[in-house]
Amino acid sequence: MSAEITTGVARQYATSERLAARGRLHRNYTVAETPWFQWVAARLPLAGGARVLDAGCGPGWFWEAGAPVLPEQLALTLADISPGMVAEATARCRPLRRWHVDGVVADVQALPFPDASFDAVLAMHMLYHVPDQALAIAELHRVLKPGGTLAVTTNGAGNLRQLYALTAVFGSDPADPSAAAFGFDRATALLEARFGKVRRDVHPGHLRITEPEDVFLALTSYPPGDAADAPTLAAFRDAIAAAFRAGGGALVADKQVALFLGRKPG
Q1: What is the mean pLDDT of each run of 10 residues along the chain (266 residues)?
Q2: Strand ranges across the sheet with 74-80
Q3: C-alpha span between 125 and 109 (Å, rounded)
Q4: 257/206 Cα distance (integer angstroms)
Q5: Residue 245 belongs to a domain
Q6: Does some domain include residue 168?
Q7: What is each CA distance from 81 to 14, 37, 229, in whole angstroms?
Q8: Does residue 166 form part of some domain?
Q9: What is the pTM (predicted TM-score) of this model?
Q10: Structural domain total, the chain
Q11: Which residues constitute the domain of residue 147?
């Protein structure tokens, strides 16, 4: 596992700029019956008035996209290790529905909340950044009420393999680094160790990318591509161009992304 995915997180996520370069691929090029955020939102067992923690909330894109299918009233706590992300997320979410929204700068490995504080806890596409994932899951379990639900999302080993094959130019493994750090098998093992049996649903969809520059921007928004020298970047552009030629002007990449749901006994 590359250590880069758990180091330099403060620089990577000080704001949503770098994340947006990667998010653009999914927002603009996903082929699926139901978009990812709405698909997840529809599967969350949230009742009106529920107290919900989003640990590693990022810029709050999930809540904005999922609002139409979520309860009218929620008490939502947005937590992230990045002050910039917390500020952006709270500003985005406070106008949504009739939600009470709080923002907290916090490390998921040491959450500043009492035991049994929340009816539901989310950790979406963030546990692969955490150095001690078992400790983080223990903290998520601790702050969840008995009978409450934990929702975790992450990527599988085959996620976007056609894209990550291109990063071999940088000397990277040709696979999704997040899946190497916290893929489906590891997620299942760690979650079931704390929650017992968990449910895993895989979102059906793929990417059909028609703009090569969006691939370049996404894959150079994090290490090691963000520090590559000019000759390496030129070789990377050549590799992207070759992939688009081979695909007749488009690059199709398989998505492998899942929602895990666990219930705290009680």
Answers
A1: 50 69 91 96 97 97 97 98 97 96 98 98 97 98 98 97 95 92 98 97 97 95 92 97 98 97 94
A2: 100-105, 74-80, 50-55, 118-124, 144-155, 257-263, 199-202
A3: 15
A4: 10
A5: no
A6: no
A7: 9, 22, 30
A8: no
A9: 0.92
A10: 1
A11: 3-159+175-205+256-263
